[in-house]
Amino acid sequence: MDNNLVLIVEDEPTIARVLEGYLLRDGFRTVQASDGETALQHHALLKPDIVLLDVRIPKIDGFGVLAHLRQTSSTPVIMVTALADDIDRLSGLHLGADDYVVKPFNPQEVVARVKAVLRRTLGERNDAVRRFRTIEVDCTSYAAFVNRDGQRIALSLTLSEFRILAHMIRHPTQAFARADILDACMPESDALARTVDTHISNLRRKLEEIGETGFFPAIRGVGYRLYDPQ
Questions:
Q1: Which end of the chain is more exposed for a tag (fewer CB within 10 A), N or C?
Q2: CB within 8 A of 25, min separation 6: which ones?
């Protein structure tokens, strides 16, 4: 992960300098932006490997920047905030963030989070396209498709749904415990195991709507598998 470029979006100069110092010490390259407009310009021009994005920044706030990034790229984003309301919004990571940290933070922990997110996303890209039966998952573009009757039908998935599908398709007949799915797909979230039930239910419904049945059967006392071999 040496030489990966980190875009630090932070309007407090002291915090930005501290983060930059710790990241440089660990072999990362950095670039800074103090407002949302500059952040989007830097992202478009420099194509950073990951973004550290403060929520409360001028011009365009962090949520606005994140929404724009998710429309145009799959660059990993770690959100930074100090406000309880923001934490509530981020805790489920439904907005497309890959992780979040809360101020005041230990800079070494932030660097560790950066490494963990990059490790996960780079791993996904190295195993870019996964297929099972009619389902195809492209981990580079964060896209999933069903190929049937000569058609390639795109699945509209949330980030968490996509991660669960991409994780389970590697071992489609393996039984996955809810806790294992949480650890693998939402390690930065405070979500409870029952959240997995909701995501699985949504995935199953979206597949059934286009005629794909038999996916995501529940395994009593364990959790779920992608497909029952019987």
A1: C
A2: none
Q: Cα–Cα distance between 208 and 24 in angstroms, integer?
A: 48
Total count of residues recorded for the chain: 230
Residue of 97, 60, 104, 64 lying closest to 81 (CA atoms): 104
Let me know: does 149 contact 108? Beta carbons within 8 Å: no
pLDDT tens for 89-143 read: 665 455 678 888 888 899 999 999 999 888 877 665 556 788 888 888 887 778 8
Q: How far lies 104's CA from each of 79, 114, 146, 184, in Å?
A: 13, 17, 44, 27
Name the CATH superfamily, with its identifier, for domain 5-125.
Response regulator (3.40.50.2300)
Distance of alpha carbon 206 from alpha carbon 77, whole angstroms: 27
Q: Domain-by-domain residue ranges, the chain? A: 5-125, 128-224
